[in-house]
Amino acid sequence: MVHQRPARHTAGVAALLALTVAAAGCAPIPASAPKYVTDFRAGDAAESASQQAGPTGPEWKAPQKDPLSWRDCSDQLATRYGTPPAANATLECANFTVRLGDSGTPMQLSVTRAELPGTPDTAAPLVLVGGTEFTGQRALATLAAGESPMLANRRVVAVERRGVGASSPLNCRNTEQRGVLRSGAEEPKQPFDERVKKVGEQAQAAATACGDAYPGTIEEYTGAAAADDLEALRTAWDVPALGLFAVGDGSTTALAYAAQHPKQVARLVLDSPVRYAASELQRAEDAAKGTSAAVDAFASQCGPACALGADPAAAVRDIVDRSARGDLGPFTDTDVRRALIMTLGIGPGDRDARIARLATALQGARTGDAGPLRSLLRTADDALGSDGQFVARCSDAVQKASPDQVKASAQKWGPQYRLGAATALALTDCTGWPTMEAPPALEPLEVRSVVTTSAADPLTSRDALETLTGKLTVAGARPSTLSWGGIGDGAAIRSTCVQKALTTYLDRQEAPSARACPA
Predict the structure, then answer these.
(1) I need a labelling partner for 246 at 20 to 30 A (CA). Which of 6, 272, 304, 498 fits?
(2) With contact defined as beta carbons under 8 Å apart, do 262 and 444 qualify?
């Protein structure tokens, strides 16, 4: 039985987490700029010298000691994610053990670092905070697979969330629960109300099963709880502050850390962030807008040899409409959305390679060849469908949607956004989850921040950026915004231009050298 979550224990992290270190087995963009390139804050590009200087913030320096035991895992991660490192980049893996809450239950966390041969040892490392979809290790492997000016100046160290990615896995749902939540009720022809009911039943059963499997620690998988692990890393390194680079919904963990430890944040970059402490309906509508933009960008940028034929836009409309009606063979609209997120949102490769991969799979489904899309969905299951990801996503779901709100959202978003009803249905996954404590409110910060966004990101939208800049401004972090005209989650992960623009901020805490980067 899943119980209401009690208030978080607030004892110091040093007493809360016992750190044990051990060696771990880790489990170029086309230059054309589409119509989606947007400079969100072009009007304030000419800042005064005093504004550029901004707050100095806490000292950011390299660790004098590093008790983590690293081993080269470049080849292993290249195979796992399809991301061979470029420019002689090296990926190394380690892990450390944290103890969860009052129970002291041990949890192994995965840590991965990337560097180039000339990366200086004296530079402070940038800590990459991964999310529940674009996990830290996957994001770092993707960054290292391209030209990475960010790595030329400093190491980037990715910390995985509890129970996610290469960290110790959770195992609490059965096969039926995973299958129904994955595909949105599995039966393409079912009426939407029946799909909501079926998914809701399995979501409730899954919530109960996971609560029963981890009765003493189930409340310890929120983004705010994961912030404790960042403090454990800072303590292990014995440094005054961390430079944080959060990707996707890793922004929740990074901001929770900033709220809990405002004097230990030396840099704060939020890359493709989600809303902080917002309702699930708000976050889901951001995702619906982003998914719709990604569908349109995919259709408009599928080139002359596009597998979808001479009119890709018409073909995409046909696929989306047929999947919504349940007429795309065995595939639901939820399957199409998952395929889109996997390939365009978090998948490896440049824009053209990702577009070609998705076009081939969707055209096969459209013409009766289910094989390519089934293969892609198996990859999506591995990347997006673990029990740890389910627990983490639902633990972060503030003000969960009711079944009636899910249905109302589907009716509204279906005509407004491509795959809008499928995005609304995903809200049902967490309807049975217990209410968790909301993330802490931001405290005054002594460091300026940078928020970046993609023009077509199937996991979030520009609206999330605009709400975050307001929160950061109130907290004194004086955010700069940087947009990228490409497709995908993680503008800085994928764009060399964005990384170069961030260099002045990382090196001197000045505003980025650009405000918009082409695709």
Answers:
(1) 6
(2) yes
Q: Cα(254)–Cα(243) distance, rounded to whole angstroms?
A: 10
Model confidence at 28: pLDDT above 80: no
Cα Rg of the chain, angstroms = 22
**CA 119 distance to own-chain centroid:** 26
CA distance 387 to 279: 22
**Cα(431)–Cα(423) distance, rounded to whole angstroms?**
14
Supply the pLDDT for residue 55.
53
CA 297 – CA 354 distance, rounded (Å): 12
Q: Quick one: tokens of 192? A: 């939407």
Interval 155-172 mean pLDDT: 96
What the block records as the tokens of 337 is 């959305």
Tokens of 68: 């983590």
d(CA 445, CA 97): 29
Secondary structure letter of residue 400 according to DSSP: P
Closest CA to 153 of 119, 114, 117: 119
Burial (CB < 10 A; 0-12, 13-18, 19+), residue 168, is: middle
Cα–Cα distances in Å, from 315 out to 131, 310, 329? 32, 9, 16
| Other residues' Cβ atoms within 10 Å of the Cβ of residue 329 | 17
Name residue 347's amino acid. G
- What is the residue type of 166? A
Residue type, 178: R
Percent of the chain's residues with pLDDT above 90 = 81
> Can you tell me which residue has the tokens 């993707």?
142
pTM higher than 0.85: yes
Q: How far apart are CA 168 and CA 110, in angstroms?
A: 8
Q: For position 293, what pLDDT does the model report?
A: 98
H or E element in which residue 454 lies = strand 450-456
Asked whether 210 and 192 are in contact (CB, 8 A), the reply is no
**Measured between alpha carbons, how far is 352 from 430 in angstroms, rounded to an integer?**
34
Task: Check: CB of residue 16 under 8 Å from CB of residue 230.
Answer: no
Contacts of 382 by beta carbon, 8 Å cutoff, 6+ apart: none
Cβ(110)–Cβ(95) under 8 Å?
yes
Strands 265-271 vs 156-159: parallel, antiparallel or unpaired? unpaired
Identify the bridge partners of residue 107 per DSSP, sorted by sequence position: 98
**Nearest in space to 359 (alpha carbons), one of 345, 339, 377:** 339
Residue scoring higher pLDDT (194 or 303): 194
pLDDT bucket at 41, cuts 50 / 70 / 90: very low
Give Cα 303 to chain centroid, integer Å. 28
Residue 351, Cα to own-chain centre: how many angstroms? 18
Contact 9, 101 (CB under 8 A): yes
Q: Are 484 and 456 in contact (CB under 8 A)?
A: no
Distances (CA, A) of 146 to 143, 185, 272, 452, 504: 6, 38, 18, 18, 20
Q: pLDDT digit string (tens) for 300-316?
A: 999 889 999 999 999 99
* Contact between 195 and 185 (Cβ < 8 Å): yes
What tokens does 253 get? 């963990």
